[in-house]
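Notes, p. 3: input format for complexes.
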Amino acid sequence: MQRIIKGKIYMQRIILAALLGFSGAALAEGGMLQKDCSGCHNLTGPAAQTLKDAFAKNGPALFYAGNKYRQEWLVSWLQKPERIRPAGMYYGDHIKPGAKGDEIDTATLKDHVALSKADATKVAHELMELKPHDDLIAREKIEPGTIDKMMGEMNFDKFWGCMACHLIEPEYGGLSGPELYTAAKRLQPEFIASFIRNPQAWEPKTWMPNKAVSEGGIQKLVHYLEMLSKEAANAK
Ligand code: HEC
Ligand code: HEC
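Output follows (236 residues plus heme C):
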């Protein structure tokens, strides 16, 4: 059964890739984003509205990139992409049974295309113009503040259960969501707050639950992720 479903999804992906290939070719004069990126990334919205579409995604949605990323991070990551989701877009596609439980089947994960500095700069600029969710961002206000590392981790792990899906250090934490020790380097603080407040406002079919985190709880989680990213940068 599992195999049949997988086979079906795979066929759908091939058909989808073929369809996107055609529209991509038709839009070739639309620039690099259309030509080289739209096959895997949703650049126009809306977000996936069904579970089927969410599972079939070949890459994260970029149509709200301007509300989400830090431009300087985009420029550098696009030249030297490093993995952010330890088990790829959909965890279930990239795990295999191992001695101590499920392991990531790294052989099934592909490296991301890397761009020249000029292309990365240009594409990052174009991505930053995509801002359909200014309304969600405008609701967030980040209070300045810091949090003690132990308290922050306890809050993140024990109190809100975020560790189940997110790494807070390389190889420490859950594997199904994006790593979060680089989150504050990658993402605008207001996006982080908004996504924690209501993940489904951004991605209706995301499997990140809405934990109904209190306002104070959101501020603490943002401060914690800011601290982790500073630490990760210093460790390099
Ligand atoms: C073959 C499919 C594919 C193509 C083509 C592709 N990407 Fe990606 N992209 C991905 C996947 C998969 C990820 C998630 C990587 C990860 O989490 O480690 C990703 C991640 C990203 C991210 C980081 C987003 C995030 O939140 O994690 C950016 C930015 C990005 N891609 C931009 C681009 C641009 C610009 C292009 C065109 C030049 C492009 N991609 C082409 C599959 C693709
Ligand atoms: C059941 C797994 C799960 C749990 C629990 C979970 N998340 Fe997530 N989270 C995800 C997934 C999956 C994504 C990627 C969003 C998507 O594309 O669907 C995500 C995305 C995020 C993002 C945006 C990161 C990015 O690069 O796009 C932040 C920030 C985040 N989660 C924080 C948290 C916090 C804080 C908690 C605890 C309150 C939490 N998450 C609990 C699965 C989870």
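Residues 21-29 have pLDDT under 50 and may be disordered.
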